[in-house]
UniProtKB/TrEMBL annotation, chain A:
Record bears the keyword Metal-binding: no
A Pfam family annotated for this UniProt entry: FeS_assembly_P
Similarity remark: Belongs to the MIP18 family.
Keyword Ubl conjugation attached: no
Name listed for the protein in its UniProt record: MIP18 family-like domain-containing protein
SUPFAM superfamilies noted in UniProt: Fe-S cluster assembly (FSCA) domain-like (SSF117916)
GO cellular component: intracellular protein-containing complex; iron-sulfur cluster assembly complex
Record's keyword terms, sorted: Chromosome partition
Organism of this sequence: Gloeophyllum trabeum (strain ATCC 11539 / FP-39264 / Madison 617) (Brown rot fungus)
Automatic annotation (TrEMBL), chain B:
Extent of the signal sequence: none
Keywords noted in UniProt: DNA damage, DNA repair, Nucleus, Repeat
Protein name: MMS19 nucleotide excision repair protein
Organism for this UniProt entry: Gloeophyllum trabeum (strain ATCC 11539 / FP-39264 / Madison 617) (Brown rot fungus)
Keyword Cytoplasm listed: no
GO biological process: DNA repair; iron-sulfur cluster assembly; protein maturation
Gene3D superfamilies named among the record's database cross-references: Leucine-rich Repeat Variant
UniProt xrefs under PANTHER family: DNA REPAIR/TRANSCRIPTION PROTEIN MET18/MMS19 (PTHR12891), MMS19 NUCLEOTIDE EXCISION REPAIR PROTEIN HOMOLOG (PTHR12891:SF0)
Domain (MMS19 C-terminal): residue spans on this chain: 422-856
Locations listed in the record: Nucleus
Domain MMS19 N-terminal: 27-258
Family: Belongs to the MET18/MMS19 family.
């Protein structure tokens, strides 16, 4: 397989997304989190939660690195509306031939992890890829996505990338 | 003869070994096979020959036969059909003692002359490579030309190994350039194993093999330069393996290590200072930190010279610059830690300089992230284990000065958060005995001020209580860590902490934390000291002599006596029993209660807990004391135990006309007494346990009694080793082995539904506390019962059942046939318990989803298949749960079910 970017830039991974143990507005320093239990508070889906779902997808070209390591995805590049999720990603090089596979992996992960009411838009960061338009079109065309997933080789490549997705920022090694 | 069957080979080998035949006979017999015109026959012939050779014992070969065989087999190398078997034969011969270096040269020449490496397939090249391993001087240039251009990773791993041996053992002076070419043309390694690679060679295997090769003196210079080039782009992915390679050099010989550092450190230092590379400062620091760590870890114990000494000022300067920048701060802290932990590197003044710089970032807004705080604390506590004076002299005053004397008002959330953060810092930094002393003095003084300031005011006192609580928690946490670390200085804080803390009686959370502090201190003081402390406690609590307790703001008015156990005592006094009990539970068993009659005292506590106490906290405190004394001094308690059986059970528990609330409290007290007896394996424990079954038909209290059966052996914080409890080994197993059959029997076929449910409750409560091995053989009987338990309304019971199922389910798809048998019921029960409409408890929903996600790993796919589409569909609705924790488990469970397939 041709190497598109044998020596990509590695970024420092973000910290684990963890809300501070002390609840805002509380007077008391609470150490264990058992108090979360019976509150009726609704915790809406936010960009951090979406990021958590996709951060540990393996980069198809660098099997020991995640999309987060290479800053292909990041929390600020995600927008969440009431029934809409918009994910932007950044290929490491403008000629990266893996971009579609990356986008497809993100789509499949979100397809499996989000309630059906959400419409998911996935696109590369404007100006970050030479075939930006083609990739975006492919990733957001329902039928083309479905057709791609009918292809067993492609599906297995996607599953390979997704195998690590459950790590949610824990280290691969 | 030459049928190629293993049996023939074995027979032939046996004949030769027994001396019945000779190798010559074999050659003769093979005659026409070896010279046949037909390719297949020749291959077979040589193959047979080689097989026999590899089987024959060495003593059957003499010098002459080896020579003949070598020249014969070398001849066979010319023939493409016999190359492989001939090489195999030669390979066996090379192991023989009679195989001389002359033979080696011949073999080698023949290989060079006749083997056309590039026309062979991998497996054949592999044999060639193996056959070459271990021959001599003329070998080197030939070897180089042979392996030049090899691409298959399987062979490369081997080649790198051979390269290393050659470089170490052979005279390769004239060929070093060539060696560099045949090894470092592969550097950096970008190999990616194909999916499903059956050979299992990973990128790391190759990298490690290559790194070891690089680790040989001849190559160092060239490799070093290659790596340094890669370091010039510190942000790229190859920089890390490059720096790892350089780090590997550091642990070789002295000169190599010095050379490497002299090249790498200045390069990275310059890079750090280069304004054009400002954006790469963080990765540059990361690489430097790697080098510093490697230099630190590679220094042998005996070595007096410190490798990094000449770079120390530069490094320290760079790290302190990096420290002040948000993005590089964590890395800089890590780097500083590496410098601090390098033996003999940093002077005391430099440690002070480091601490001073770290102090500067502590108050900064951006440094208030978990990651930076953790690294800061890590560094500061590392420094203070080496020399506490800097942290004590500069960091602590800085931290204490930010703690106000009065609580931040209710609306000042950020100020409060700041206090908590400061306290968190203090609790991490002050474990060192001298630092801990400062902490205790400063924090108890602070407590005095806080409690004093609110004693008489009418204002909102909750913020003050909460602030005091956070300070107490800090003390508790440090004490706990110190006790775990075995620090002996804890004992000397008895007065300051155990008696001094009696000022906090008004708020349950403060009481609880203060109690924990008292327990921690009393645990570690020696028996005689415990005894005298207890004497004064009893004087205070039972005889009204409260002067010894620093009651602070709770000064007892002159017209009031301190009698917390009196029914009419005010609530604040009753609360003090929590602190009293906190000391009692930590006593050694040799410490006798200085009361006239221990049994009577226990009876008094019991009556107080059921009739006069006002809160759960107070009641539990009494029960803990009863349990602790009964456990440690059961002889003193004999009369009390008799009273339990003869009075308390028949007239407080078993009588239906008493108020249900009281009966329940009595069952709780009963549970603690039984627990105390069972824990020490006391013979009367069984009698106490069996009584509980007697009320299984009484719907007012049967669930309480049933739960008590589990509570008796559930883990607790009172009857522990730290609290010097008398614990019989494996008492919980014994207990379960005795009761489980009885309970299972009852759950299956008790007289009526009420009793069956009680047995079911007992089962679910008991089974979660016992190790899996106790009941795993009973699973076929238990599973149907547990599934019935899942239908009980109580969320606690459901959570227990699910966690029991979880621990009883192996993550081995071929193991749990019993789980597979019930898969349909399990799947639908878990799905029900995952839905918010059916199950309001978040805990149960999370547990059910976790279990659902476990099934694909534990049950064969063909059993799961019929449910797969239902599960995926139902889970897709649960992905919309209002709670994040539930959604997370739903995602994980769903993805496990997605990927499972036959």
């Amino acid at each position: 397989m041709e190497a598109y970017n044998p020596n990509p830039t590695v970024y420092k991974s973000a910290k684990t997304i963890r809300k501070s143990g002390a609840k805002e507005g509380s007077l008391w320093l609470v150490e264990d989190e058992e108090n979360i239990e019976d509150s009726d508070e609704v915790e809406p889906l936010d960009q951090d939660e979406i990021f958590d779902l996709i951060r540990s997808i393996t980069d198809p070209e660098h099997k020991h690195m995640t999309l987060e390591d290479l800053m292909v995805v990041s929390a600020p590049q995600i927008r969440v509306g009431s029934n809409l999720v918009d994910v932007e990603f950044t290929p490491t090089v403008p000629h990266c031939g893996m971009s579609t596979l990356i986008g497809l992996s993100i789509r499949v992960r979100l397809l499996r992890s989000l309630p059906q009411r959400f419409k998911v838009d996935i696109h590369v960061k404007p100006g970050s890829h030479q075939s930006e338009h083609a990739i975006n079109k492919q990733l957001n065309d329902k039928e083309r996505v479905a057709a791609a997933l009918e292809n067993p080789a492609l599906l297995s490549a996607v599953e390979d990338c997704l195998a690590s997705a459950g790590l949610r920022g824990e280290r691969l090694e | 003869m030459a049928s190629g069957r293993d049996q023939d080979v074995e027979e032939t080998v046996a004949a030769i070994s027994d001396g019945q035949g000779t190798l010559l006979d074999v050659v003769k017999a093979l005659g026409e096979y070896l010279t046949s015109e037909e390719d297949a026959l020749r291959t077979k012939g040589v193959e047979f020959m080689s097989a026999v050779l590899s089987g024959c014992p060495p003593e059957r070969f003499n010098r002459q036969s080896v020579k003949v065989l070598v020249s014969f087999l070398c001849g066979q190398l010319e023939d493409p059909e016999t190359v492989v078997p001939a090489l195999k034969g030669l390979l066996s011969l090379t192991y023989l003692p009679t195989f001389t270096s002359g033979d080696a040269v011949d073999v080698f020449d023949a290989i060079l002359a006749h083997v056309k490496m590039k026309s062979l397939v991998q497996s054949q090249r592999f044999i060639v490579t193996i056959a070459l391993k271990g021959i001599s001087k003329r070998f080197v240039p030939g070897y180089i030309s042979l392996v030049n251009g090899e691409k298959d990773p399987r062979n490369l791993v081997l080649c790198f190994g051979i390269d290393r041996v050659l470089l170490l053992e052979f005279d390769v002076k004239d060929h070093i350039e060539d060696f560099f070419n045949i090894t470092f043309c592969y550097f950096p390694i970008t190999f990616r194993p194909p999916p499903d690679d059956p050979y299992g060679i990973t990128t790391d295997d190759l990298k490690n093999a290559l790194r070891k090769t690089a680790d040989t003196p001849g190559l160092v210079k060239d490799v070093c330069h290659e790596c340094l080039d890669l370091l010039k782009e510190p942000e790229k992915s190859q920089a890390k393996p490059a720096v790892k390679t350089l780090c590997a050099f550091l642990s070789t010989t002295g000169p190599v290590s010095t050379y490497t550092l002299a090249k790498a450190v200045p390069l990275l230092t310059a890079l750090f200072h280069n304004p054009d590379e400002a954006s790469n400062r963080t990765p540059t620091l990361t690489l430097l930190t790697e080098l510093v760590k490697a230099a630190r870890d590679s220094a042998p114990e005996s070595e007096s010279e410190v490798k990094l000494a000449q770079f120390k000022d530069d490094l320290l300067g760079i790290m302190t610059v990096g420290l002040k920048n948000e993005s590089s701060c964590t890395t800089a802290l890590e780097g500083l830690k590496a410098l601090v932990t390098t033996k003999g590197l940093m002077s005391n003044d430099e440690l002070g300089y480091t601490v001073h710089n770290v102090n500067e970032i502590i108050p900064l807004e951006w440094a208030n992230t978990e990651e930076i705080i953790d690294s800061t604390l890590d560094l500061l506590s590392t420094v203070s284990t080496r020399s506490p004076m800097h942290v004590e002299g500069t960091t602590l005053p800085l931290l204490f000065s930010t703690l106000p004397d009065r609580a931040p008002p209710r609306e000042a959330a950020s100020e409060r958060a700041k206090c908590w953060q400061t306290l968190a810092f203090l609790s991490k930094l002050c474990k060192q005995p001298s630092l801990f002393e400062t902490l205790v003095v400063r924090l108890t003084t602070k407590l005095d001020l806080i409690c004093g300031s609110t004693a008489h005011s009418q204002e909102d006192i909750e913020p003050s209580a909460a602030y005091a609580h956070s300070i107490l928690l800090t003390l508790r946490n440090v004490l706990k860590d110190k006790v775990d670390l075995g620090h002996l200085d804890v004992a000397k804080y008895l007065d300051r902490l155990a008696t001094g803390l009696h000022m906090v009686a008004s708020e349950p959370r403060l009481l609880k934390t203060a109690g924990e502090i008292i327990t921690l201190v009393v645990q570690v003081i020696p028996t005689p000291k415990q005894q005298s402390f207890l004497d004064s406690l009893i004087k205070a609590y039972l005889h009204g002599n409260a002067k010894i307790l620093a009651l602070g703001s709770l000064k007892i008015p002159d017209d009031q006596v301190f009698q917390p156990l009196e029914p009419s005592a005010p609530s604040l006094q009753k609360n003090m029993i929590v602190l009293f009990s906190a000391a009692i539970i930590a006593l050694h068993k040799d410490v006798a209660l200085p009361v006239a009659d221990t049994s009577q005292f226990l009876q008094q506590l019991y009556v107080w807990s059921v009739h006069h106490s006002e809160t759960l906290l107070q009641r539990e405190a009494a029960w803990y004391s009863i349990a602790s004394v009964t456990n440690k001094r059961c002889d003193d308690a004999a009369q009390f135990l008799t009273a339990c059986q003869e009075q308390i059970w028949p007239s407080d528990i078993a009588v239906a006309d008493r108020p249900v609330v009281r009966r329940r409290l009595s069952i709780s007290a009963w549970t603690w007494v039984t627990k105390a007896l069972a824990t020490r394996g006391h013979p009367s424990a069984e009698g106490f346990v069996d009584r509980l079954f007697e009320v299984f038909d009484d719907t007012d209290i049967n669930w309480d009694a049933a739960r008590a059966l589990g509570g008796i052996v559930a883990a607790d914080d009172i009857l522990t080793k730290y609290n010097h409890a008398v614990i019989r080994i494996l008492f919980a197993q014994r207990y379960c082995n005795r009761l489980l059959p009885q309970i299972v029997e009852g759950a299956k076929g008790a007289a009526n539904g009420r009793q069956q449910v009680a047995y079911l409750v007992a089962l679910t409560s008991l089974i979660k506390t016992v190790p899996k091995t106790t009941y795993v053989s009973e699973m076929p009987t238990l599973i149907p019962l547990l599934l019935r338990g899942l239908q009980l309304r109580d969320p606690d019971i459901r959570a227990n059942v699910i966690s029991t199922l979880h621990s009883a389910t192996d993550t081995d798809p071929n193991g749990s046939s019993i789980i597979a048998e019930h898969i349909g019921t399990l799947v639908s029960a878990m799905l029900e318990n995952s839905k918010i409409e059916e199950m309001p408890s978040v805990r149960v929903r999370v547990a059910a989803l976790k279990y659902l996600g476990l099934l694909p790993k534990s049950v064969r796919y063909d059993k799961l298949h019929p449910y797969k589409s239902t599960v995926l569909k139902e889970l897709s609705n649960i992905l919309d749960d209002p709670k994040r924790a539930v959604r997370k488990e739903a995602v994980d469970a769903r993805s496990n079910w997605f990927t499972c397939s036959g």
